[in-house]
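Sample intake sheet
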Amino acid sequence: MRAIVGWVVSRLRRYRPDRNPLRRRSDRIEAALAAAALAAVLFAVLPAALAARAVYDDGIAAERAGSGTRQLVEVTLVETASIGAASIGAASIEAAPAVQANGRGLPAVSPARWTLPSGEVREGVVPAALLLRDGPANARLWVDAAGRPVAPPPQRAETMTRAGLAAAGAVASVAVLAWACFALARGWLDRRRYREWEAAWAAADQRWRRHHI
């Protein structure tokens, strides 16, 4: 921690505006570029917060359950055999082969029958990952407003995590871009300073030779 604080203090001393006569024009340009890079990162905080808010609002909307949104219904499993492909209503699901979980072969899809809140009975093949099993032949399933099987609604922790990642990703992207631009500009300034330094030494050497010849 002390090393980090020391590095920050040294950067502030290096780039702070002052009237030091030893400071070259290129040094002042570098300080201005550092300030611009920092300002870009700070200005990115507000858009990042707005992006996080949008992701959070979408997550809250996806969490809603009830009439007109996704609902949890009871399911009766007809059998548990793995099936190659089948249709659910108007949607077609391409089933994967049986997968291994906990050392046992589990079906990728399961034929099932479920009753919607309206009383309509649906039959079809449901991906096993969507079934919340209550027993060998009984399970629960989330369906959308049209009665089609859907993934469970996200949890609040998942919504908050996605919002946080959206904000952090936005700020990090701007920070990386700002740092890359600053590094490129500083590299160009360093090469220019080296050329000026070599030219100054060459001129000093010429003056020294003329003085001692």
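Comment: The chain has two domains: 26-59+157-212, 65-152. Residues 80-106 have pLDDT under 50 and may be disordered.
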